[in-house]
Amino acid sequence: MPELPEVETIARGLAERVTGDVIESVWLGQKKEPLKSAAQEIAVTLERSRIAAVRRMGKHIVFDLEKDGEARTHLSAQSRNKHGVNDSHVSQKRREVGHPTLAGRSARATPDRAQWIVHLGMTGRLQIATPEAEIEKHTHAILKLVSGRELRFVDPRRFGRLSVARSADFDAGGFEPLEIDVDRFIELFRGRKTPIKSALLNQKLLRGVGNIYADESLFRAGIRPRRRAATITREQLVKLHSSVKEVLREAIALGGSSISDYVDADGEEGFFQLQHRVYGREGEPCLVCKTPIKRVVISGRSSHYCPKCQK
DNA sequence: ACTATTTCCTGGATGC
DNA sequence: TGCATCCAGGAAATAG
Q1: Which residues of A are catalytic?
Q2: Domain boundaries of chain A, sorted by first residue
Q3: CATH class belonging to A4-165
Q4: How far does the CA of A263 sit from the C1' of B15, in Å?
Q5: Is the CB of A227 less than 7 A from some atom of nucleic acid strand B?
Q6: Which residue, A61, A262, A280, A282, could crosslink A118 as a Cys pair with Cβ 3.0–4.6 Å?
Q7: CATH code of the region A182-305
């Protein structure tokens, strides 16, 4: 399940491989769940755009896109044609038609900017493939790249989401856990009656922390997941602030946690699952005190902790 | 304004 | 072996 460290790993891998490439055409599947923006809007925004950068925001992967004046000329021609999404593979010849006039180019010297936002949900994957490679079941989007490769979005459980941001930059909400300072961090939890575990999972507060890293952070900070956020001392929150950052940094360094079928952009597994101290260790001895690790459900999520080390 | 619960999804694991 | 049931969980929707 991709959380911040896994998404960071994937985004870095993709950045290495597709930055500078141009999206030639887009195919989107029939299933509607994976599409948060309208299919046509996604296709039109992506087609003929250059991938200027790939980065992570919370658990989202953000592709920064640029479209020059020439591309826009073709784009508007295509929009008028009202092609169905599944016909949106753009033919070679149309790509070569015409040249922008000098006037047209100077009038639009700044490239159009947009963003393609991908949330992987539970089982989403972005794979780089050759056109010959077999199309996997549950493939919901295929981007043909000018380099000749394809970028494919595969997601069996369809919890993942694709969207585009055009008029304004994408707002992922919340603070980046690796950037927030300790005072702001403490402020996030003031007056909150919700269990600290739930607060850590709330993306409007911190973006990117998921179930694994919430449990691991709370263990390192010695705080039980059910503790009401507002009752936690300043001192403990200072500890939690550093624990969250420590866990995330270590996980990123190891390429994330491969729990079920998570692999990075190169198909490589991460290794942080070997460092888990509580997550997935119900009944096993605490690595510090040997007390069996407990598992409880908090707001529908399994939560693991050591009843002796965490108060 | 908050907080808690339900819902969406499929595949793998489990049980009989 | 086959078939039904359960479980994983992020975030939006719904309810309180």
Answers
A1: 2-3, 59, 301
A2: 4-165, 182-305
A3: alpha beta
A4: 31
A5: no
A6: A61
A7: 1.10.8.50
Question: Which nt sits closest to A259, CA to C1'?
Answer: C8
Does A4-165 match A182-305 in CATH topology? no
Could you say which nucleotides of strand C lie within 7 A of any protein CB atom? 7-12
pLDDT in tens, chain A (311 residues): 789 999 999 999 999 999 999 999 999 988 877 888 878 899 999 999 999 999 999 999 999 999 886 545 444 444 433 333 443 443 333 333 334 444 444 455 667 899 999 999 988 999 999 999 999 889 999 999 999 999 999 999 889 999 999 888 888 888 999 999 999 999 999 989 999 999 999 999 999 999 999 999 999 999 999 999 999 999 999 999 999 999 999 999 987 766 655 666 666 667 777 778 999 898 899 999 999 999 999 988 899 999 999 99
Report residue A184 CA to chain centroid gap. 23
Contacts for A255 with CB less than 8 Å, ≥ 6 apart:
A5, A9, A264, A268, A269, A270, A271, A272
Locate A93 and state its tokens: 């010849």
Q: What is the reported pTM?
A: 0.85
- Protein A156 CA to nucleic acid B11 C1', in Å? 9
